[in-house]
Design brief:
It contains 15 helices and no strands. It is an all-alpha fold. The protein has one domain: Farnesyl Diphosphate Synthase. The protein is globular and about 55 Å long. The chain starts with a helix and ends with a helix. The N terminus is likely disordered.
């Protein structure tokens, strides 16, 4: 992918602008993490299926959708360079309606979170603060790839996982094993967030956004992203063996080896292959999350 490709207008989506600005494709990671939390809790899932569905709705279309609208609104000037056909810079969502939609989706998210109980509401407040702080001035975490990617990883993976576990055990603090997995996979997601920055290098440089590819250069940023993705998973494998879950540990180890093979190809041409690796590598990454969740579920069930 060369500079011409980066700056070329993207094909217009066939989705309505209001749906497009919510970026449905991005809902999957927090929805999946919430489900991992539910599985890892050890609680009977089918007996509380409505909580699972409400939580998935909250984690994906509402909370993640909010973060996407907020990001698109405050990134409209950068998107006018990188992706001018997006709904806000193209004018398909006119005037200040992007801001109004950000506020509306925030309110809907917090209303559902409040209905699900104080624990979920508290986690939602933290997640909402991160969502706005990530994109909106004066904080605008995303202006520095170190902090912005960490905030996004914690929000997308850790908070969603912990909330999913806690809501099915009556709002109690999840066990340390669950917290450890949520933290490790959140740290690994820092590398995933870096992959997303490769497509916006040109606009980020022009607008002063200090993403890691901008700060470190494409090659070093790619190496860092791979290392940050791989190291926490190696620790997960170690923990699973220490918890006497060797089958799950081997399975997560295989998942990691597959990613390492994909990383070799990605590192040869990081700018051109970032989207490719994000699609394949992240799919394998989240498979390991669910394997780990089932391993911890066995621990929680035995403890109960």
């Amino acid at each position: 992918m060369n500079d011409t490709t980066l700056s070329a207008p993207a094909p217009r989506s066939k989705m309505p602008a209001v749906i497009e600005v919510l970026h449905p494709i991005t809902w999957f990671p927090p929805m999946w993490a919430f489900t991992c939390g539910v599985v890892s809790s050890g609680a009977p899932i089918l007996e509380q299926w409505w909580i699972l569905l409400a939580g998935i709705l909250l984690a994906g279309p509402l909370m993640c959708g909010t973060s996407q609208v907020v990001n698109d609104w405050f990134d409209r000037h950068v998107d006018a360079i990188n992706e001018p056909d997006r709904p806000i810079p193209s004018g398909r969502i006119p005037g200040r309606w992007g801001l109004y939609m950000s506020i509306l989706w925030s309110a809907l998210s917090l209303l559902l979170a409040y209905a699900l109980g104080p624990w979920v509401f508290g986690m939602a407040l933290i997640g909402m603060a991160i969502a706005w702080g990530y994109s909106a001035p004066p904080l605008r975490f995303k202006n520095n790839g170190w902090w912005g990617n960490l905030a996004a990883g914690i929000s997308y993976e850790g908070l969603a996982w912990i909330t999913g576990a806690a809501v099915l055990i009556g709002g109690a603090m999840p066990g340390w094993e669950i917290l450890a997995l949520a933290l490790l996979y959140s740290l690994g997601a820092h590398g995933i967030m870096t992959l997303n920055d490769f497509k916006a290098i040109e606009g980020d440089i022009e607008m002063g956004v200090r993403s890691l590819p901008v700060q470190l250069g494409a090659e070093r940023a790619a190496q860092l992203a791979c290392a940050v993705m791989a190291a926490p998973q190696a620790l997960v494998v170690t923990l699973l063996f220490l918890w006497d879950k060797p089958v799950h540990g081997i399975a997560v180890g295989v998942v990691l080896l597959i990613q390492l093979a994909l990383m070799v190809r990605f590192l040869a041409k990081p700018v051109e292959r970032a989207v490719w690796f994000s699609g394949l590598g992240v799919s394998v990454y989240v498979t390991g999350m669910m394997i780990s969740a089932f391993a911890v579920r066995g621990l929680m069930t035995s403890a109960g």
